[in-house]
């Protein structure tokens, strides 16, 4: 089984366990807003995803952990750490990323929200990613997603993103085979 599929499968299993462990509540619903992404709220998120380059190579499965802060109602800044399994022509690689994301929840309903996010980060890999590129790269991404409230503190989070990975020509044009791709993710977000 390819490395990226193993990483996604294990991460899905572990991210689902806390939801199964939650006790069911029979208490009456409260009158507070269910999305409650108000200024000053902190969050922790854990999710898994899959990225694919627009052509056939490479493919990347990943696990992400992050902390978010709502600096204004429905606007958050998130710092995330991701670890990837990269399947590509030649050698497979492990890749690590530090990322900052800005997220805006634009539509808010009873138990769910729709958001847009945009971010950028740096990556370091155990091999050149892509093959013929460099170990160190930058990543930019933008996407759309949803949250769905599971209980007072836990939200399901899922989305899709377009991403671009390259080293910004820091080693010259001939060693900068940038990648453009798309991906999806699913996981949990806890209000702290």
From TrEMBL:
Read off the SUPFAM superfamilies from this record.
Answer: OMPA-like
Cross-referenced InterPro entries: Lipid-A_deacylase-rel, OMP/PagP_B-barrel
Q: Highest taxon of the source? A: Bacteria
What's in the keyword line of the UniProt record? Hydrolase, Signal
- Does this entry carry the keyword DNA-binding? no
**Could you cite one Gene Ontology molecular function of this protein?**
hydrolase activity
* Segment forming the signal sequence: 1-21
Which Pfam families does the UniProt record give?
PagL (PF09411)
User: What is the recorded name of this protein?
Assistant: Acyloxyacyl hydrolase
Q: Which organism is it from?
A: Humisphaera borealis
Show the taxonomic lineage: Bacteria, Pseudomonadati, Planctomycetota, Phycisphaerae, Tepidisphaerales
